[in-house]
Design brief:
The chain is α/β, with parallel strands linked by helices. It is about 45% helix and about 15% strand.
Amino acid sequence: MSTIFIIMGVSGAGKSTIGKALSTTSGIPFFDADDYHPQANVDKMSRGEALNDDDRWPWLRSLAELLKQQEVKNGAILACSALKNSYRELMEYDLDAPANWVYLDGTPELIAERVAARSGHFMPPELLQSQFDTLEVPDEAIRVSIDQSVDDIISDILTQL
């Protein structure tokens, strides 16, 4: 059984950046949940429409299956918004050991700046508020502030393990 990390937070919090850095540090393979969205979800978000639970459930089930497969291999570091408790429960349901949840915490202002500055992502800045509206901050997660360097965030995560 291998370690599973799920790096979570709203769009623009730095999930992919932190996930890749943690993967480099730990040697655990990195996966980005955005790569597993069906085209219909990508198209919907590209049009500026927020996803609803019906859009998310099939995607979350595919991520849960990925995590289960990786648990018996080399583990996984997954960057995924995982905004609601019910989403997190589904993703972790079939795992033999609890996942290590890492919540990237930042102010709406800082994250809005980051989202506005990035290019080439299907999630438009106009949908950021819908993510904050949906977010249920996890009680049982490693919580790190994104208002620090990537190296400091990785150190913070490893210290809190």
